[in-house]
Amino acid sequence: MPEHPTHPDQIEPLEKWAAGRDGAAIWLNATGIAIGDAGIAILGVPGSGKSSLALSLIAMGATLIADDGLWLDPDTDPPRLRRPDTAQDLIEARGIGLLRAGPTRATAPLTILVDLDRAEPHRLPPRRYVATGDGRYPLILGAGNHTLAPALFLMARLGRAEP
Fold first, then answer.
1. I need a labelling partner for 109 at 20 to 30 A (CA). Which of 36, 39, 52, 136 fits?
2. According to the 3-state scheme, what is the secondary structure of 5-39?
């Protein structure tokens, strides 16, 4: 029988991940990818698997915005992930080196945030969100999730069912 969590939605402020600012723009120590028009920010400490997850998604057809650092413009509607001016078309493959990522994308609307520092303790979790301005965006706790890449790819393309 499926589990049906009774937890209310959980909302966290985006500023929790802010590593710097330039005016309204927020610097995130994150890797950004786009799947169609869906921008995904992959957050986590060094070594948590940001680039590895992005590599898996790129192999499925995603496009790199930037590896290991990107801007979020919170004042746009919706907020947009933005490639730094100095970013190259490179992504780190641990144990292999820097790889060309193919065509990159300068910007994409924020659609999903992934936190690789925390594991999801629930099989069918409560809805988690990150809030910025008047918007809220799905937050996925992804540490140790071996099906994370294909699940994110489907979520970005087709959405998530309501509980």
1. 52
2. CCCCCEEEEHHHHEEEEECCEEEECEEEEEECCEE
Which of 40, 55, 143, 147 has its CA nearest to residue 94? 55
Phi, psi of 149 (to 5 degrees): -60, -55
Summarised one tens digit per residue, pLDDT across range 121-155 is: 999 999 999 998 788 999 999 999 999 999 999 99
For residue range 15-51, list pLDDT tens digits in order: 899 999 999 999 999 999 999 999 999 999 999 999 9
- Write down the pTM of the prediction: 0.92
Q: What's CA 104's distance to the chain center, in Å? A: 16
Does the domain at 11-157 match CATH 3.40.50.300? Answer given as yes
